[in-house]
Amino acid sequence: MESHAKLSLVAPAAVPPVAQQPLPNAPAEASRDVEAAASYRLVIEEGPTVGTFVYKTLNSTTGEVVRQFPREQVLRLAEARQYNAGSVIDTAV
Q1: Best CA proximity match to 43, nearest among 23, 17, 64, 12
Q2: Is the pLDDT confidence value at 53 over 70?
Q3: 3-state SS class at 92
Q4: Integer Cα distance of 68 and 85 in angstroms
Q5: What would the mean pLDDT of 15-33 be, rounded to a whole number?
Q6: What phi and psi values does residue 29 have, to the nearest 5 degrees?
Q7: Quick one: which of 54, 24, 30 has its CA closest to 42?
Q8: What is the per-residue DSSP string for 35-79?
Q9: What pLDDT band is residue 75 in, cutting at 50, 70 and 90?
Q10: 31 touches 38 (CB < 8 A)
Q11: Which residues, in sequence order, are CB contacts of 83 under 8 Å at separation 6+?
Q12: What is the enclosing helix (H) or strand (E) of 89?
């Protein structure tokens, strides 16, 4: 197969650095963010259907589920016998 495309060289251009303004108390804020992140842990479990997963963010101290994806209501809906994919939202007009 023959190519008739013409190639031309482009000289690299210097990219100026992004101006950064120092954050007040940046080390203290970063330290608090790290401490807050350390108080959570991510748990990934197999979902109710083969090939699905449930992602849970847990409070490391209490074990409480802070967030879950997909939500419990969505999991129950997917397990319902009468549920068919697309039956919740009908986009056909």
Answers
A1: 64
A2: yes
A3: coil
A4: 21
A5: 67
A6: -65, -45
A7: 54
A8: HHHHTEEEEEEE-SSTT-EEEEEEETTT--EEEEES-HHHHHHHH
A9: confident
A10: no
A11: 77
A12: none
Q: Give the CA-trace dihedral at 22, 27, 30, 34, to 10 degrees.
A: 170
Maximum average pLDDT range among 5-19, 34-48, 52-66, 68-82: 52-66
Quote the CA–CA distance of 2 and 48 in Å, as a whole number.
Answer: 53
pTM here? Answer: 0.50
Which residues touch 46 (CB under 8 Å, ≥6 apart)? Answer: 52, 53, 54
User: What number of other Cβ atoms are within 10 A of residue 26's Cβ?
Assistant: 9
Let me know how long the chain is.
Answer: 93
Are the C-beta atoms of residues 42 and 56 closer than 8 Å to each other? yes
